[in-house]
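fold-stage: in
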Amino acid sequence: MQANIFLIGPMGAGKTTIGRQLARRLNLDFYDSDREIEKAAGVDVATIFEFEGEAGFRKRERRAIRDLAGKHGIVAATGGGAILCEENRRCLARSGTVIYLAAGIDEQLRRTRHDKTRPLLQTAEPRRALQALAEQRNPLYQSIADIRVSTEGRNARGVVQFLARELQTLRAV
């Protein structure tokens, strides 16, 4: 049975892009936890935040993470804040290989500057918001990561090649 692979990290780190390509390379199904939440709710993440707030979204996210962890042989990109919940961290860590995709604040800003679908960035000072999120979340990403890779200034194909080698090494051990 093929193990699951979960991608964690901040918004703009490339979890969805790299996840799709990694799944294709490994011949696995790809899932994005935010898309799974949207499918179940019938509305986009921004609308969930608008009507239910972050707490309502996080409750839906816990359910999506639990459902994804119950699958086998998948690659799943998680939302940047999925690791805030201890239950999610435990679920991801015991259900597969966890890959932390890291990216600096400048890179995140560059990659997300035109994206109006990220509720936590709809602020007058997105840099400050990203810095606060990084201070809170980076230690949590580190705490459950089996593999850590910076996507800073790297193309997705190169990161996927690196990860495929790392995963092969991990599974050979």
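fold-stage: in (second)
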Amino acid sequence: MMSDRTQIAMIDYGMGNVHSVSKALEAAGAAVTWLSEPAGLDRFAGVVLPGVGSFGDGVRELGARGLSGPVCDWIRRGRPFLGICVGMQLLLDGSDEAPGVRGFGICRGTVKRFTPSDPALKVPQMGWNEVDAREQCPLFAGIPPRSHFYFVHSYYAEPAGRDVVGGETEYGVKYCSFLWQGRMFASQFHPEKSQTAGLRMLRNFVDLAGA
């Protein structure tokens, strides 16, 4: 019997923290299916692309499984999408981490490495940091302004236009920590590790996908 929970596809390409993201989404009210091939993608209400590792490996692994095109098509059709960590960075044109490797190009821009002048700011950034979110962004509904989320990363997104910036964070530089365009959302931080605020964000995504 089909669950009456919102059906979410978790893209499994061998690089995401799939278990913890799945558990958090289930706690937020979703029925989660891991998907490692494009067949059947259209039967879901929303797609989540997690990511832990390098930009170049992410591009290669998604391509090898035939998932790059279908995921990009899903986003361009305006269907609910959430990218997490490297799953956010892959949406840009490319990354300093993998010169010459082309990203999805959904959002124009590149991914830069942190080069803080303050020796107290270690790379990678690991731990809690504040996100200054755009008030209108539906995934931040019910989350107090400038809430803290959990980060683990050495590279950050630098989109070409501010129209896709849904949230910003400071770590030696003010950078885009959340992308938002229509029903495409992507976070540099890990909502599944961000306790109350993160769970609320995931619940907002599940609700939006199921609407």
